[in-house]
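Self-study notes.
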Amino acid sequence: IPPQEDWPSFVYIIPKLRSLPLFVNLGKLFIDDHAEKNPDKIAMYYEDVKITYGELKKSSNSLARCLADLGIEENDRIVLHTPNVPEYLISLFACWKIGAIPTLVNHLLKPNGIAFRINDSQAKLVITHENCYSQLRKVIRRCKLLQHVVVIGEAKKNHWKYYEMIKHEGAMLCNPKFYIEHFARLIYTSGTTGIPKGALTTYRQVLAACLTHAKHILKITEKDVIGGNPFFTLGFGSTNFTIYPWFFGASISIINHFDPNMALEAIEKHKITVLCCTPTAFKKILNVNDIEKGYDVSSLRLCQSSGDWLPPQVIVEWKKRFNRFIVDSLGANEVFYFCSANEGMPRSKWGSTGVPVPGYEIRLVDDNFNDVPPGMPGLMIMRGPTGVIYWKRIDEQKRAVKHGWNLTGLIYTHDEDRYLWYIGRCDQMIVSSTYKISPLEIEDALEKHPVVKECAVIPMQDPDRGQVPQAFIVLKGRVKPSEELITKLRNYMRSNLEAHKCPKRIEFVSDLPKTEEGKVKRSVLSQRFQ
């Protein structure tokens, strides 16, 4: 853990955040307390299965007791390596009940990525699923500190069987309370800018996220059913599905893989009220002609996007076809959400990332840490009740915090009304002669062309200008690549952007390489085509 002098400054603007209890058991707070009040309330919908709060309490208690019997103690790291299934959440709550630290490992990772996270976290136990065990099996011998593997489904020799463990009828746990600065999870960054970094989150930060973004932006109550496609092991899904609902005693709808029709069927079947999807998922739904006419989605009151920038044309088309607004929220694995659009914002502000989430402060600064005026790009820095705490990465911690502020690595502008507009990442800006060009602006213009399904723009080395934009385009439907089409796209870009922003090279590709979160792997494009 980095020295506290390298931690960010935490500010508690909302009074409730200054009066949180000093000791808490998240498993009891999130599950048992609700189960005692209403044990028969549905907590999870999964396909045709319904699981109540009372059942969650019993299963998580049984698993927690078994984990303790295996020697798992307070602060031990337990890797959760499963797809989106109810057993993931039961395992998470069991960890919290005994003070262990859940370590989130996405089920789609390849063996090297799995091994890195197990070894870096120094995990003692892994809970995995039979559908992704084959990748874990290849690296178990490389994980020297790993003592136990629990398999959900068919367990292999020398591994523990999850379903046998939750049948355990041992003595009830006393639900010990832990200091509010105890660590609640270890979550890894996507690694798009280098080696993945483990970020620690305290109990206080978990509760702060619930009392800021969840309460004031999403306005979650016990009546809500939250549904969508984000993976539980990544920031968006971890926050919206494994934390928010349980603080308020709400319910969730789980789908284990994304399909546009499956997503809308779940809305109709489970009466989802808050739909959480990545920008890619919203686009895929909109790409299905008249899909909104085939399902009853009247239960929806709000939609939220996160994980990547949401183009304004998606917001407009979604509103037109589904009559619901998409709230685009900005956050990070390290710090939860700190900036967001909100319902009722003027239409002229659609496409902005909105304003700071209540409880947070945001500044845009220049290279000298001075605030920039409206309209001028600046580095976004933030502080609030959450902040960056890196695991075993002291140098990265020093680079992530300056004068107590969290450095986001994002370039934004703000207007006269203080709404924030995304320009791009510091490490993705294209420096061409004296110009700094945002790939996002070029991508936004290209994706408005009727033949473009999606695209990505990266810098290409140029002997005269240093760098120039290069575009990779996925075409819609049966549109065929051709030199004639390239010429048409160039003419279109010249009529919509300044000359220095027009891509010097256009490449047609069948798809774009993406992370598990749906973010484009620009480094892969750069290596593949340069």
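Second protein, same conventions, sequence then structure:
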Amino acid sequence: MAFQPKDIKTFFEKTASWLTEKGVLRSARFGSKVIWNSFLIIVSVCFVGTFFAGGIAAGYFASLVKDQPVLNYETLKKDIYHYSETSELFFSGNVPLGKLRSDLTRTNISLDKVSPTLIHALLSTEDELFYEHEGVVPKAVFRAAFQELTHQPIVTGGSTLTQQLVKNQILTNEVSFERKAKEILLSLRVENFFSKNNILEAYLNVVPFGRNASGQNIAGISAAAHGVFGVAPKDLNLPQAAFLAGMPKNPFSYTPFENHGGVKKDISSGVARAHFVLKRMLVAGYINKGQYEKALAYDYKKHFAKPKQSPMEEYPYLTNEVENRSKIILAKLDAKQQGLNGEQVYKDYRTYKKMDYLAKTDRHHRSIKEITKARGFNYSKLKDQYDLFNELLKNADNQLRVKGYKIYTTVNKKIYDAMQKAENNYSNYEPDKIEIVTDPKTGKKKKVHHPMELGAVLIKNDTGEIISFVGGRDFKLSQVNHATQTKRQNGSTMKPLLVYAPALEKGVIQPGEIVADLPYKRYINSSGDFYEPHNYGGRYHGFETARRALAESHNVPAVRLYTKLHPASGKPAQNLKKMGFTSLFNSDMHNLSTALGGLTRGVTVEENTNAYTTFANDGNFIDAFMINKIVDKNGNVIYQHKVKPVHVYSPQTAYLMLDMMRDVIHGGTARSLSSYLKFSTDWAGKTGTSQDWRDSWFVATNPNVTMGIWTGYDKKYTLNHDLYSRHTQQLWARFANAAYDIKPNLMDPAERFHMPAGIVQRTFCGISGQNVTNLCQRAGFVKTDLFNEKYAPSRNGHALVQNGSGVTLRKSFIKSHYPYLDESGMTDELWGTLNPRAPIPKEQPKAKQRKKPEEKPKPNNRTKPKEKPNKHKPADKKKKPEN
């Protein structure tokens, strides 16, 4: 029977009668009115009080959120989905390399790739009314507020998943009524703009899950599933899902792993939490009794993920290199977005670093401002650009840690691994150099070991892709990447780049033309200082072809040839810039010692090797690169490398240079190389050694790839004079063999270098480079070799003259072709080849044809020839490094 309003009056009349009978009221009629009016007053007061309290509460709530701006959809979307995600690296072919270093490892994932069991476990524990509420649950909020106001322990949470998401992504973890009020307001707004699945997906990507098996901090369900159980989120089973769903409440208490990696001895708190989650799932009806009991018996320790090496631990040189290159790329892009010329800012940044290096090494102790002004630069502008790019690099580094880029490299994983293995397995490294130093803390003497180091790089010619490299012997001992960062003098590997190729291009020399390996002495200032290059062992070889001078790496002919190119103009060295040399200084542009690799600071293995690809690319330089593309977490390609060939030499010059460098390997200073290789292909290369045997080089190219190597010490110790070149070539061959085992077609192309049109073979007079004459035949200077057709012999030369019964060189020819001839250094034997007063016997027209009793026999395949280091003799007679 329904309750009627008249029943209220009847109730009060009966109450009044009862009170009258008890003597409380005088009459029932009067008592009934009193009670009725009292009730109306109480109801009215309560009603008004409720509205008054509600008004106060509303006013208080409004005062708490008055400073919180009303966020629109776009702002909320940006905030909700703005969570850090670690960038990921890839080898070539999209082979995963791993995550970059970061304080927090996180990977974005869509909701459809998460196990429904995990979602059920999470909702039953964290927010069982998730699909019913509008962002907040009033009952839970009031309960939590009452517990807070009465200082009771908070045994039940008041926050929905939506509120937790808002707290993590928009607000802070501050404990206050103001923050809670803002959280409620924003949660209602989020629910208004976003679907439940959008909210749940965002929550699963931001919530922290403690640590992974390697001890790294993790967030998001993808990193948690992989890091805790070693499975994808969609493959989580019931007990695994329950364990992870229980972690967000107190992730570092419930995590099963130590902060240094490995499983904790006691994981009972995490297991107990998982069992609590299972109970909630049972109550909510997500699982049945049988599933529940089976999950309780799950042995978690047997199923935890095993610790894994991070990319920085497994591939330290590679990871560091990719990070550094990515930061530069992102910094340039950032500059462009700001309306700046990123390339110019980066160029100025590098110029400032050069000036800083010069200031630190200046023997006159000039400041960087003075150095900069002397070089014609504006110091203030350079400093501003330097500071700007440093800031751009810092921003780029932060982007790499939080924006979830996918960085695709050109490095072939299998070849890279094989080359590192070859480096580790080599047993003929020279002994460590021992340095005695004083410990600054204890003041005691201690030994510091300096191991022999190396750097190598393998580049694909037609694209510039860096296929692989070796950064050093042990990253723990030296974090410097010796393939891409170490700058050292490149010795005789400079000769093809700076001397012979430009000479071929200008028609100054052709491969078979004769050069003079005779004493050279040039005064370089009014103080009497002079430049006097020497060959290895101090010997001269008289007349020899340019081809042979390069193959045997004789220094003096190279310097004399470079002199004829007018290096003071700086034009020959401009080619080095075209071929990617970035560490050149003004002095390098005109110093004679540059012809022998005597650079002010040096060049990296990458740049030196990259320059040699110019010859394999028909005279066009293609800059080497390691980062192919960078993709943001939304799949947008924000950077894509583009190949931009730069013309340096003609195809004819490139081919003639290759053909000359073939002789380095087939009979020259690298004649033993073939005995170390397991395959035979069309290699052309050059050895190199710097002053005092501090650096050893070998670079070689074939139609597909170019590979270069440097060996030496981080501190400029001397290498073993007898073994250094052998070790360098053995290591180079081991790396080539390792790459060949992985990709034989890459390392051993079927075709040889293609000879372009415009190359002809001619028989000619080697001393003049012109047609053969009777005098040339009598002197024994007739040669047959390749020519660039436009420089082929077309007339008779005038180098020789009849001298009695003999043939000799004209004085005018000697003066023009052999400048800075040092007569004081000429021996009778050398005069016999040159002095017009001493006719040249027909049976011995050239000094190199004479038998030299002091010359050692040429080594066979088992004996390593010695590379000729650059030796200069300055005026003070003290040995100085090239500069």
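Instructor comment on the second fold: Residues 835-883 have pLDDT under 50 and may be disordered.
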